[in-house]
Amino acid sequence: MASVETVGVVGAGVMGRGVTIALRQAGFSVILVDRTEEILEGVQRTIAQDARLYTLLSPKTAITGDEVLAGTRLHTDLDAVAKADLVIENATERFTVKRPIYQRLGELVAPGTPIGVNTSAIPITRLGGLTGRPEDVIGTHFMNPVPLKPTVEVIRGRRTSEETIGRMREFVDALGKKSVLVNDSPGFVTNRVMMLTVNEAVFLLHEGVGTAEDIDRLFVECFGHTMGPLETADLIGLDTVLLSIEVLHDEFKDSKYRPCPLLTSMVDAGLHGRKSGRGFFDYEGRGK
Asked: Which positions ≥6 away from 230 have C-beta within 8 Å?
């Protein structure tokens, strides 16, 4: 299998930045693409902040913001990933946003180049079909925060080739992470279960069954979770959680995936969790 040296990362939001830092920790060169120069200017500041935080939490993988940026080329033109050995897409969880990206990637990157889909719920097979080369498209569902999570959910689309699966799993191994291979389904394994859990926890809060603190405390203290479902939602971003649940609801046509009205209202109010300073918990004044 051809070796991977340069990775194209599409989307410079929370997940794109996390993937970029993890790639640089493992020694890969990165081409990071987003829509505007303004976004990329902000990325240079936030990557430095993120790198400092991850170094504090995991000193053995220490890397500075300068070291991340030294091996990262920033671009606003998707054409920049044309020569990448592998691509990971992290754009907003909306099919209308992802559609033109995949149509263009199918034209841009060389045949046989794996195109990794880092999506929360959108079916891999559908996105692969947009490229005209679905055999190269494979789900690579990284968990947030990417540099600290040891495992990646790898998803086989209906027409993903065995060669692409092998190359992606080899790449994940080179990142110092493990991979679990599953078949394509909206939400895959992790988010099909987790988003339902998060949404139900929001309903519990909405109905006054418990406070946010007590709901999460039960999951941490009774089940040994690192954090409860509401704090997890704040970490992911409530806007992303809502989009993911809406995808599951649309795909399965099952009322159990109906978004809680409280979640919808909070997203409308701009209370998106850690990245906005407030969600189910308050992060203003104590870091995000």
From this structure: 198, 201, 202, 205, 212, 215, 216, 279, 280, 281
